[in-house]
UniProtKB/TrEMBL annotation:
Domain Sulfotransferase: 112-347
Enzyme class: transferase
Superkingdom assignment: Eukaryota
Residues that bind 3'-phosphoadenylyl sulfate: 121-125, 202, 210, 327-331
The protein's name in its UniProt record: Sulfotransferase
Family from the record: Belongs to the sulfotransferase 1 family.
GO cellular component annotations of the record: Golgi membrane
InterPro entries cross-referenced by the UniProt entry: NST/OST (IPR037359), P-loop_NTPase (IPR027417), Sulfotransferase_dom (IPR000863)
Locations listed in the record: Endomembrane system; Golgi apparatus membrane
Topology class, membrane: Single-pass type II membrane protein
Length: 365
């Protein structure tokens, strides 16, 4: 039997409630982008403010509504500009944002029936890109961040972001920060109690290093991984308020979701297997979504240069497609003692997580 590191679900929530507040706070303001001139032919009138909906990485300058620079990491690579709802664009905002476009523009925009809610650096972009190959899935390219940062914009704003779908097609989006957003489960449940939730999880130690690597790529002057990890290096006390550590305590975050959703409505995808056996993991996801298994091993090839599986044909294209250079970064070397200390720290939480999900992810072998 598995050890049970945390006695009850209510205790899990209680212990970390304050930390969750910390995680959310820097992200709360709406991100806006002041429109000046567009290179893609959009013209909605100069000087208007546009809500920026971010993707996972790098691109453009993100400014908060009050003009202060955004604080923490992940400016989007595939972020896009959205017009305010009262303006009808003469052209599509961006094909990437609109997801798969129906050639005749038919169909209706629906709220998503399935969401990839996390985890940050788990492999969420890879999963969404792979799923988009399925003809019955329509997905938003960028991260809407509706249930964390943009909730005040309302459900109609959110629905407008969605691509048009035909009968039987599933609308999806991915925003990895939902998994650690305290209010997200209640908000998603209020949209629809039937929403299917997908979480891509990855070894929390590697995930933390990946998270740190991303921040480092944008802010090369940040302290070392080691110094951020410990509250006290001598005693080895780990700083669980550091988001890179905090996010990996999956059992705690999951406990919050289980207050609103039954386990059957949440699918856990192994980030490791998504790399070693993408077709296998995609098979499980298609089953979970009630879709025919159309995405199979025939869709993938292993790109030696990239070091990752890639699509033989990207959605809407006939060309091979690997994820961009912000996916699959080289991680810095971390002192093995620090890694070991982190493994020891996460082990009981991982065991609890395996127990809760009924799946053994093998991070502690
Ligand atoms: N096929 C494929 N190609 C490239 N990268 C892949 C793939 N499958 C999974 N991964 C892993 O995805 C990691 C990034 O995770 P996310 O997309 O969830 O990151 S983010 O939170 O949206 O920024 C990224 O993490 P790093 O390797 O640390 O960069 C990859 O390991």
């Amino acid at each position: 039997t598995m050890p049970s590191p945390l006695k009850s679900s209510s205790r899990l929530v209680g212990v970390f409630a304050a930390d969750l507040e910390d995680l959310r706070s820097p992200r709360r303001k709406r991100l806006v982008y002041k429109w000046t001139s567009g290179s893609d032919g959009m013209s909605y009138g100069a000087g208007r403010r546009y809500t920026r909906v971010s993707g996972d990485e790098d691109a453009g300058q993100v400014v908060e509504q009050d003009g202060a620079p955004e604080l923490d990491s992940a400016p989007p690579e595939d972020s896009l500009l959205l017009p305010p709802l009262d303006i009808v664009p003469s052209r599509k905002v961006s094909p990437r944002f609109a997801g798969k476009l129906s050639p005749l523009g038919e169909g209706t925009k629906k709220l998503p029936q399935a969401l990839i809610i996390g985890v940050k650096k788990g492999g969420t972009r890879a999963l969404l890109e792979f799923l988009r190959v399925h003809p019955d899935i329509r997905a938003v390219g960028a991260e809407p961040h509706f249930f964390d940062r943009n909730y005040d914009n309302g459900l109609e704003w959110y629905r407008e972001l969605m691509p048009k779908t035909l009968e039987g097609q599933i609308t999806m989006e991915k925003t990895p920060s939902y998994f650690v957003t305290r209010e997200a489960p209640a908000r998603i449940s209020a949209m629809s109690r039937d929403t299917k939730l997908i979480v891509v999880v990855r070894d929390p130690v590697t995930r933390a290093i990946s998270d740190y690597t991303q921040t480092l790529s944008k802010k090369p002057d940040i302290p070392s991984f080691e110094s951020l990890t410990f509250k006290n290096r001598t005693t080895g006390l780990i700083d669980t308020s550091w988001s890179a550590i905090q996010i990996g305590i999956y059992a705690k975050h999951l406990d919050n979701w289980l207050q609103y959703f039954p386990m059957e409505q949440i699918l856990f995808v192994s980030g490791e297997r998504l790399i070693s056996d993408p077709a296998g993991e995609l098979g499980r996801v298609q089953d979970f979504l009630g879709l025919k298994r159309i995405i199979t091993d025939k869709h993938f090839y292993f790109n030696q240069t990239k070091g990752f599986p890639c699509l033989k044909k990207a959605e809407g294209s006939s060309k091979p497609h690997c994820l961009g250079k912000t996916k699959g970064r080289t991680h810095p070397n971390i002192n093995p003692e620090v890694v070991q200390r982190l493994r020891d720290f996460y082990r009981p939480f991982n065991m609890k997580f395996y127990q809760m999900t009924g799946r053994f992810f093998g991070w502690d072998e």
